[in-house]
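At this stage, I wrote out one protein, both as residues and as discrete backbone shape codes, and that material follows here.
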Amino acid sequence: MKNECNIVQDLLLNYVDGVVSKASKEVIEEHITTCNKCKEKLEDLQKDIEENKKSEDKEVDYLKKVKKKISKKNKFIIIIGLILSLTIIFNIIVFVNYSITACEMEVYLNNDITEENQKEIEKIIKEKDNKAEIVYHSKQEALEQMKEKLKDKSYLLNQYENNNIFPASYTIKVNLKVVKSIKESLEKMSGVRKITSYVESNPYEVFLSNCLQLF
């Protein structure tokens, strides 16, 4: 009987795992019906295996939770990264747009401006920036430009052909660093009616204004 118990107990683990032969399974099941010791061994073994399984399940659940938390954290990091990247790109676009727009200015001239005054204006600009781009627009050119903007309604300006109300002007493009200085100098000059510049404007407002002009 003892020898039989030893054989059965050696086979119990395989029996629980379901890897014993049919004959061995029948022997074991018949034996434990009459042997309380082997039956207890089987029950203890099954209990240990069940506890180990629960422990493993808990570890798997824990790992799943950790993985899920990491996944959520990674998604959050990716989203924040995208938002930051888009914010940086947007700000780069805004300030590039500002640097292009703010380096330009329009200087509108009085009708009675003299040739000497005009030369002085050009001289001041060149002294501030010898690479400055200066384009002169006559009163007639200003009228034609306005007609182009009105398109089908350009006929409304026909009445101004002989009495042109639009001023001559300079379109100036200079280094952004000297725009404010040029503006301050020209504002004091005789013959200058008005100066328009975005140099002191909010970069975001300039960007929005340029975007609206596209529609």
User: Anything to note?
Assistant: Strands lie at 104-109, 133-137, 169-173, 192-197. The mean pLDDT is 86.
